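Notes for week 9. Today we move from apo structures to complexes. The key idea is that a small molecule is not decoration. When we ask for a structure prediction with S-adenosylmethionine present, the ligand SMILES becomes part of the input, just like the chain. The input block below holds both the sequence and the ligand string. Read it once before you look at the output, and try to guess where the molecule might sit.
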Amino acid sequence: MKAGPVQHISVLLPQVVTGLDPKPGDIILDGTLGFGGHAEAILGQMAGQGRYLGIDQDTEALTSSQARLQAFSQVSFHHHTFSEFAQVLQELGLSAVDKILLDLGVSSWQIDQASRGFSFQKDGPLDMRMDSTASQIATAADVINTASKDALITIFETYGELPQAYKLADTLCAWRQTKPFETTEDLTFAIKKSYYFNNNRSKMMKAFAQVFQALRIEVNQELAQLTRFLETFPDHLAVGGRIAIITFHSLEDRMVKHFFKARPEQFKPVGKKVIQPTYADTVENPRCRSAKLRVLEKI
Ligand SMILES: C[S@@+](CC[C@H](N)C(=O)[O-])C[C@H]1O[C@@H](n2cnc3c(N)ncnc32)[C@H](O)[C@@H]1O
């Protein structure tokens, strides 16, 4: 795998470490290990004790974090989705953990790899699977080439909050009759054909971002993953244990917010209810601007 000097800047790093307050001996579950940036900082507080279970569905992320974290012998690496975390615990003979971290979405490295198809700024295959080894998962091209027009409208409206989604769905359905969609450029071209942007580049970029986000959420079933995780994790977090979740768009943030709001007898916030990046953070890492961190303790 090709790696640039900065693969991914970990979002709200000091706030995650302070919020989770890792202690030597803790068992920590990281459901989105990525490039191991949060993991490295958290492990630095654990004095070589305890366990750190790193899950990621992207094998390239696991390879990279394995190299980064080789100094820490208490880390184990698991190629799973985070919604399958209970299976990982069972395999390790564990029933509960002390701390959990979810840093949702994709990493900068994944976005920057043209071959993964996440970016509208790079031409590549329309893939968008976080687990590119999972041949049973439909790629973004498969979705565009086979979903009904109504299904496409629902995907763009629900997951991308795209106005007039029917216009794009019309274009896609007409286009695919002559030639199947294959590349990210095919898709950006179709978006440009569907809407009148009046030379307004930022409006066009916004539409690109909404469409790509919608397809990524659909391909990776991101909301279903989060729902399944939220339904199961409370039974596997120790009393007094903490969970930190970083969301990047309103759909997942709403789910997390409502989940905890409905359970005041089971979870209490640690510090501020919502922690957001400062202006300086967003200058250093513009991709973190929509991040929201919630840290809660199980009562
Ligand atoms: C924002 S990055 C995490 C970055 C990491 N915290 C760091 O500091 O390097 C999100 C990672 O979570 C993974 N991921 C997203 N959804 C997942 C899921 N449902 N199950 C497992 N891994 C997932 C992605 O493949 C990606 O590597």
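The first strand starts at residue 27 and ends at 30.
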